[in-house]
């Protein structure tokens, strides 16, 4: 007889263009689920106002990040907008082994790398309702120069072309609706044999 308690956790990858609302959707999801573990990423970028080291990201120097790359300590890493981001390997492996689900909030480049190292991952693409809405969201942040906004929009156009490489697509037109869809995906995947 199958022992359901010994089932390995699911690795859920939530990905999409910058400013699509990945963090907002994830925070709303985690309020309802205490059995999903958020995998905090490491980054070389500077913290934004209100971000905490070890909670939002592990903020580190470029030298330390590159040392961890050489030691194969990331399941994925990428250089995005002149900063490095990566997911610590040991945390993900240990948590999945306990039967808990792990969710990653990562960019498109990172998702490609995870797909190569974790073929059992569940890949969810979060897309904006339109490119115009995405540009509006980036502008509302008030943290980007016009040049940075143009770069992000150019990248977003290319990233949206990657949708067909994902298992699921969620349009983030309303946060509550996007969260409900993500919950449904997680529940269905937990029931999958």
Spell out the key features of this protein:
about 190 residues, alpha/beta, Rossmann fold, five-stranded parallel β-sheet, 7 helices
What does this molecule look like?
The protein has seven helices and nine strands, in the order E-H-E-E-E-H-E-E-H-E-H-E-H-H-E-H. Helix 1 (22-32) packs across helix 7 and helix 5 packs antiparallel against helix 6. The protein has one domain (4-191): Rossmann fold, CATH 3.40.50. The chain is of the alpha/beta class. The strands form two sheets. Strands 2-7-1-8-9 form a five-stranded parallel β-sheet, with helices on both faces. The two termini are 13 Å apart. Helices cover 42% and strands 22% of the residues.
Q: Please state the overall shape, judged from the principal axes of the Cα atoms.
A: globular
Helical element count?
A: 7
CATH architecture: 3-Layer(aba) Sandwich
First CA to last CA: what distance? 13 Å
Average pLDDT works out at: 88
The CATH homologous superfamily is named P-loop containing nucleotide triphosphate hydrolases
How many beta-strand runs? 9
Radius of gyration: 17 Å
Catalytic activity: GMP + ATP = GDP + ADP
EC number: 2.7.4.8
Keywords: ATP-binding, Cytoplasm, Kinase, Nucleotide-binding, Transferase
Main location: cytoplasm
């Amino acid at each position: 007889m199958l022992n359901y308690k010994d089932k390995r956790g699911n690795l859920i990858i939530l990905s999409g263009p910058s400013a699509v609302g990945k963090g907002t959707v994830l925070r709303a999801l985690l309020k309802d689920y205490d059995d999903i573990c958020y995998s905090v990423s490491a980054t070389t970028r500077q913290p934004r106002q209100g971000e905490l080291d070890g909670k939002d990201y592990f903020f580190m120097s470029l030298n330390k990040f590159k040392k961890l790359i050489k030691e194969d300590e990331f399941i994925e890493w990428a250089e995005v907008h002149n900063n490095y981001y990566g997911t610590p390997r040991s945390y993900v492996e240990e948590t999945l082994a306990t039967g808990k689900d792990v969710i990653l909030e990562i960019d498109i480049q990172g998702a490609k790398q995870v797909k190569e190292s974790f073929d059992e991952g569940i890949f969810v693409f979060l897309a904006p309702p339109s490119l115009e809405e995405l540009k509006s969201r980036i502008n509302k942040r008030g943290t980007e120069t016009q040049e940075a906004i143009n770069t992000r929009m150019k990248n977003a156009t290319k990233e949206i072309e990657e949708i067909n490489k994902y298992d699921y697509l969620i349009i983030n037109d309303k946060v509550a609706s996007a969260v409900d869809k993500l919950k449904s995906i997680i529940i269905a995947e937990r029931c999958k044999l």
